[in-house]
Amino acid sequence: MDGGPAGAAGPVHEVLAALPLVDHHCHGVVTAGLDRTGFESLITEGAVWPGSGISPFDSPVGVAVRRHCAPVLDLPRHAPADAYLARRAELGAAEVNRRFLTAAGTAAYCVDTGYAPGHGTTTPAELVEAAGGDAVVYEVVRLEAVAEAVAARGVEPGEYGAVLRAAVREAVRRPGVVAVKSVAAYRTGFDLDPARPSAEEVARAAAGWLARAPHRLDDPVLVRHLLWTAVDLGLPLQLHTGFGDSDIRLHRADPARLTDWLRLTAGTIPVLLLHCWPYQRQAAYLATVFERVYLDVGLALHYVGPARARAVLAEALEITPFRKLLYSSDAYGVAEFHHLGAVAFRQGLAGLLRERVDADELSPADAVRIARWTGRDNARRVYGLAGLPGLADLPG
Amino acid sequence: MDGGPAGAAGPVHEVLAALPLVDHHCHGVVTAGLDRTGFESLITEGAVWPGSGISPFDSPVGVAVRRHCAPVLDLPRHAPADAYLARRAELGAAEVNRRFLTAAGTAAYCVDTGYAPGHGTTTPAELVEAAGGDAVVYEVVRLEAVAEAVAARGVEPGEYGAVLRAAVREAVRRPGVVAVKSVAAYRTGFDLDPARPSAEEVARAAAGWLARAPHRLDDPVLVRHLLWTAVDLGLPLQLHTGFGDSDIRLHRADPARLTDWLRLTAGTIPVLLLHCWPYQRQAAYLATVFERVYLDVGLALHYVGPARARAVLAEALEITPFRKLLYSSDAYGVAEFHHLGAVAFRQGLAGLLRERVDADELSPADAVRIARWTGRDNARRVYGLAGLPGLADLPG
Amino acid sequence: MDGGPAGAAGPVHEVLAALPLVDHHCHGVVTAGLDRTGFESLITEGAVWPGSGISPFDSPVGVAVRRHCAPVLDLPRHAPADAYLARRAELGAAEVNRRFLTAAGTAAYCVDTGYAPGHGTTTPAELVEAAGGDAVVYEVVRLEAVAEAVAARGVEPGEYGAVLRAAVREAVRRPGVVAVKSVAAYRTGFDLDPARPSAEEVARAAAGWLARAPHRLDDPVLVRHLLWTAVDLGLPLQLHTGFGDSDIRLHRADPARLTDWLRLTAGTIPVLLLHCWPYQRQAAYLATVFERVYLDVGLALHYVGPARARAVLAEALEITPFRKLLYSSDAYGVAEFHHLGAVAFRQGLAGLLRERVDADELSPADAVRIARWTGRDNARRVYGLAGLPGLADLPG
């Protein structure tokens, strides 16, 4: 949009519209019906503020829901919020989820199961069942959740390192686990000592941390230890960076602050920088100079909406090798975001690529290749999905 | 402009062109005539550099003045700087000010009276008189000016806290005062301890500060104390963030650095992040996740000019609830900036909204609503202007 | 591009297409033939990652090379990488270099001779000879290289300050030297104490540094001392800021962090902020408020490519006085980048200016003036090139 009409037609648009996406980072959706407050609380990174007169519907993401999700529920585009919620209630959560997950056109989901598990959201198996068709699902293990479970079960500080390591290895042994994830950005930010902590440092930090309750992992030594645990594990590591809720300090989640750690761990595991906004250029720099660093602009895609996704993608792709950008929705809670993330990605990228093809800055064949790589094949490579059931024979 | 033709026609443009704006942060204008140096010194955040060959006219804001202000003085668009200054002198300051303030179409001004008071600029009453018509004026009290006046009058360190509090309460009791403002960004930047300082800390810091002269309030404890004084006061707090003159350290005025303080004070007073450029996305994040945080891109609007205002507004609105963006000009010194800020806002926002309407990403009714909210109604709500004389019955 | 068609025609485009550029910061090109790995290693700020499946050709700069450089080698636009490299080998390095340097249309080169000297790249004289025609060449002395040579020759710590000063004075006495350069951004970042170090501090720091080998100048006191040496010297100082290879910490190369030093040294030497991406707005702020600060977006121009150069230039010019933006390619290694930087600058700026002229936001005469100033005349002024052979009588 911004920058001309969003590629609403043409071969690149068609390729992107039909492409089975790999959503390399997302969450489950709520299985119960949602009242207005419940729904609104899930379409904002802020909160519902009763009595404020400020509704999440009155924001870019709210406009995008009314524009792009209403038709999936048989409503006219731009339907009012009340009509939208009424129709949603009328159809019921199962049907709503089915419609949006089908509409998303996602072939494979990598689901982070560590956020608010058991709060009435789908398990990975339920998510893919709701999506129907041939979609497959993989799991991403959240490291902080594993560590906090270790603490909750009780452990001696001197044993924490070994027990955590065993617990992580156990967790990733579940079928379908393809990656781990850390929310270090939320807990300490990225201004951490990049060095691997010694066993003594870990034990000392664990002693302090375990003595406190509840066990929210926010000790800088233990957060750092988690990141190094991921390195030892050998699986790809997803890292929340940038945009999130009010619990983050945005500037301290600038992925550039991870440079020293990325340099120290270069040549080990793939590191996937999630969300990144508004630091997508900083993330792109890291993906450009470090072999195993990747990025996406998930979460931002639906919050800025299809009207602005192209501008954000343009920054994310400004210098980035085309093998380094992935698609994710980071959808959580409402199935709308699985659909909206996909629409924003498909339309935003198609508009960007088509403009370059029209200006003869890019060949049509290259445009199609970039679309397929970023929407599907890069994730398939990084996570080794091609060898896994369901994605080996994805159509082109 | 950047991103297609600037909505020069159509219903959104017409609504914005006719909308009586609330300029929630601006300053007075010089009442005397201005020679070339005097005028140039007021259209740059740098300085006039004699002998450098670098004129503020040769910059985006200079081009915008010649393009959008010259016609208001009966000159052709893009009139040369010399012709512009000659015509300005010919008309005289009073007539020049009258023309630009009328052309701005501003219905209400919230005037920061704490910057360079008495330097030959209009009082709020004089400003609104020059604007003519039915415009109304409110006042914003600059906290640092109050504190520095307290110091200048003489006070015992142990009494500073109480005397300051009384002085601030006295200052805001003046009729028409609707907010306070802090320039903490200039004095310490935002890397401050977010906690409320104790009475002992304040007394100790005051002892050190009062012993020095002149009394420019730059002590980190006392700056922090000022911010907490605003919280106690209960009025909306305007905060300079981002862009300013050479006295600022730009990166330390990134509003993201205020996160801890905003978290601590959440649920208390409205906080209005002014200017924000180039951190408008960071400010938008804060406005998205904190109920009482708002932003504008004043000052930037006229410095980037109408040709680029749309791009800056697009970033400011990328994820922002539509209730959270306000209009301000931050005009100071020359009445041109009252006009230019309004033109940049009206044209930039109209272009942005119209493009989205044209692409069917936004309904026309929503576009009109966003225009009215950001240009007028949000300020009316935050400052409670609707209950004040003059703004109760503003036309739609 | 982004934001409408890239001014492919019209007077501004023609002026920019024909303008003899001054490239105020660039490097030599390799004189030997390059195999695939050799070429790829020179078109990325990352590295060639064997076995990764990630080729620098599959990135914005690779696409730009295939689009804009292939035709210079008689190949069709968007020629495949293999065909490109085969044709390059067929023509031979001398002919390839000649073609691109001629195509660049650069009238004057200011060559940084301190990066990887003697690694098979052209000397300034060889570069300009390869460029043919009437191009002239000037030299930029890299301060860290001088300091490291001083260390390599052996010096007593107590003598270091005086010997360095003499060595720098000697180095800049070579004919054609017009500036010095520092890569402090790489060595320490810009969070340095801005004050001039005392002779004792320098001697003490030199003692520590000289005791280590190899002598890579990364001591914060000595880096700071180098910057002050430049101030004493009186020549313009080029400073790497922002984007670079994996050896930089991007956020610590944000030029805003130099503010205190720029304030302390205001009124002394011109300081030219190089590259700046993604901090071009921060650099623009500094250039706006400090008389002797300038910026360019070299390096970024070819890495983002002509398809995106306009967006980056638009941010660089958002508030910037038109006297303050310069052109540089920062080309290194492959002559393609001398051409590509020039194409990206010419097309990007022409597109930006033409759009503003079309929208009547800028007069055609002003557009032409901005093009000439930024592409040529600003560098001529800052470096005093007009008085030097070859540039005195450049055509308009």
UniProtKB/TrEMBL annotation, chains A, B, C:
It comes from the Bacteria. Residues 152-385 form the Amidohydrolase-related domain. Pfam families: Amidohydro_2. This is Amidohydrolase family protein. It comes from Streptomyces kebangsaanensis.
